[in-house]
Amino acid sequence: MSLGGGHNTDGSNAGGIFVQFNQDCTSLVAGSSSGYHLFALTPDDGVEEIYASRSGQDTCLVDRLFSSSLVAIVTVAAPRKLIVCHYKKGTEICNYSYSNTILAVKLNRSRLIVCLEESLHIHNIRDMKILHTIRDTPPNPRGLCALSPSVERCYVAYPGSSAVGEVQIFDAVHLNAKCVLSAHDSPLAALAWSMCGRRLATASERGTVIRVFAVPERTRLYEFRRGVKRCVSIGCLAFSACGQLLAATSNTETVHVFRLGEAPPADSEPAEGWMGWLSQAVTAGAGYLPGAVADVLAQGRAFAAARLPASGHRAVVAITNVAKGAGGGAGGARLLVATSAGVLYVYALHAAEGGDCTLLRTHALLERAHDAHDAHDSHDAHDAHQGTPTPTPTPTPNARAPFARVT
């Protein structure tokens, strides 16, 4: 659930502000030219800035461990260095340097994952020692990887091929390969774990089909078609906490929400319009249609959708719930969309009937987002460190303080 601009999906804020929800979607982090910012999501559909580093360092990656004080950051000036901080104390816990640019950082309560273009490094969250390095992974210039929030099923998913949509699943606790999923014919574009770590959502560069798999059984549970008119670039996938809803953002102005549940009963009302007619035709003549055609027409459609006021910005998404009466509001499900323009949109998601989501609030996260000049400069600075990949040695830690329990 992260975004940035520049040359990769997760790693640089060169095209705007880096934005990411934390693992349980209770807070939001942002990396800007002035440092990094932490925001709490309040029960009244608001946001509250709880910390701003104001270091003056352009921050291209930042991740917070749930609601703890532990924050991992990467700056544009030093894109090969990971800095781990205790933000409440204002202290640096440790830092690690790598042989190439850090493209993504993922945290849960057991592990910290650092993703480079051709390797992944697994750290123990308790003492930050490196436990294992997955070397010579297929070229992954966007730093695409996903870490399950679950400690019991602490799996890392990453591309197993740069030519097709193969997913490698690695057990980050037992440090062994778990399974391989043949998810798509095209290269992967997005990955997301459910909170329990039992389900993995995938999307390819074609952007037309989203699939959900059971892990480690490798069973395809659901298949959704985002649209039939055009291919798009999927930017983010995110499950609801209950695992029954899945949201997807793309390079269009529409955010889709899919329902993961049982098929509608046979006596339910058919969908309206020509897609409803096609669905009935598939049901009536499934035995007479070519298999590929029947599969396409039988794929699930979006249960709900939200339209962003502005397009052209990368967006990350989260699905949360607000208790009835909290902050004087009506309560219910919420669809949260944060963009690289530094804006958070809060939508009411009608969890029972679906349909169009209602925009409730719009929040400007930072007083001023990067202007075009800042974006251009940070993009050049980030690219200047790319160069030719070199063999990846074991990272050398530079400890600044003992790693204490973080709350």
Automatic annotation (TrEMBL):
<dbReference type="Pfam" id="PF21032">
    <property type="entry name" value="PROPPIN"/>
</dbReference>
<keyword id="KW-0072">Autophagy</keyword>
<feature type="compositionally biased region" description="Basic and acidic residues">
    <location>
        <begin position="371"/>
        <end position="385"/>
    </location>
</feature>
<dbReference type="InterPro" id="IPR001680">
    <property type="entry name" value="WD40_rpt"/>
</dbReference>
<keyword id="KW-0853">WD repeat</keyword>
<comment type="similarity">
    <text>Belongs to the WD repeat PROPPIN family.</text>
</comment>
<protein>
    <recommendedName>
        <fullName>WD repeat domain phosphoinositide-interacting protein 2</fullName>
    </recommendedName>
</protein>
<dbReference type="InterPro" id="IPR036322">
    <property type="entry name" value="WD40_repeat_dom_sf"/>
</dbReference>
<feature type="region of interest" description="Disordered">
    <location>
        <begin position="371"/>
        <end position="407"/>
    </location>
</feature>
<dbReference type="InterPro" id="IPR015943">
    <property type="entry name" value="WD40/YVTN_repeat-like_dom_sf"/>
</dbReference>
<keyword id="KW-0677">Repeat</keyword>
<dbReference type="InterPro" id="IPR048720">
    <property type="entry name" value="PROPPIN"/>
</dbReference>
